[in-house]
Structure formats: C-alpha cells, structure tokens
Amino acid sequence: MTGLGATPGGAELAGDRAALVLRNDLVFGLIEGVAVIHRYEPGRPVAAFAEATADAALRTAGVIRHADPARAGSGT
Asked: Which pTM was predicted?
C-alpha cells in the first residue's frame, strides 16, 4: 500500500486508513479484472485495454482526474 500512499490521492487519504485500503483494493481489483478478461477473450486488442486500464487506475488512485478532459464531461 505504500505505492498508493505516495500519490497525491493517497496523501489526501493519509488520515483515513479504511479509505486508503479501499482505494488500493479497487486499483488492484481493476488490474486483476482486466487480466481475467484478457485470459478469456485473448482476441481483444491489448493496446486498447492497456490505455483504458491505465487511465482508470490513475483516476481511481486519485493521481489524475481524467487522462483526457475532453472525454470527462464534467471535468472529473
């Protein structure tokens, strides 16, 4: 959990261990979910998964609001 705690989003949660643990679990769950999808559907393009997963992981971790603000709609 030290990796997530070192991010800006993690630093905001420094006083709330439960929230930091939850966010950490969400990021790792996202990565594991993508691995399972790829295992069962290997024909899907890896590059598209990699970009979307990285974007989602960074947003979930609180590192960035959205990699592409034009796609974010409300800017979050």
From this structure: 0.66
Taking CA atoms, 24 is separated from 2, 7, 20, 41, 61, in Å, by 10, 11, 6, 26, 7
Task: Evaluate the CA torsion angle 14, 5, 56, 19 in order and state its sign.
Answer: negative
Catalogue the E-assigned strands of the chain.
none
The single residue listed with the structure tokens 């420094």 is 14
Task: Enter the tokens of residue 75.
Answer: 């800017």
* Weakly modelled stretches of the chain, pLDDT under 70: 1-3, 5-6, 8-9, 65-76
pLDDT digits (tens, 9 = 90+) for 53-68: 888 888 888 777 655 5
3-state secondary structure of 50: helix
